[in-house]
Amino acid sequence: MGIFSTIMSKIFGHADAAPASGSTGSAGAASSGATPSGATSASGGATNAAPPTAPGAPVDVEAVLTRLASGKGQTLNWRTSIVDLLKLLDMDSSLDARKHLAQELHYTESTDDTATMNVWLIRQVMQKLAENGGKVPEDLRH
């Protein structure tokens, strides 16, 4: 699984978890009746995890990330910082990881100019989330 796929999975997975615990969620309750943890849905509910996000209403990326950020003990500026977005999602935010993400998303400039690369990465990630069923505010895509 690539870095972007992991980002998307973590964001879209949190979107599924919130409605399932906050509502009756008949499909989710029927398939994972033992425990409501995300681990069981990842291992036992693979068929249930994908359908709610893709064909359903778009995932409100901003709402998910804002909710995740409110639970962290530090201020993370995920709107403009790829490093903070990765930290928010409990992912590796090292330069090597960001270079790998840049390669995965077909970044064509020099990865030695990390400031330019990082700005491009956060915009590209938000754009790709929007293209894959995420509801992302216009100002976060450009």
From TrEMBL:
Domain DUF3597: 3-137
InterPro entries found in the cross-reference section: DUF3597
Disordered, as annotated region: 22-57
Highest taxon above the source species: Bacteria
Composition bias type Low complexity, residue spans: 22-51
Signal sequence range: none
Name of the protein in its database record: DUF3597 domain-containing protein
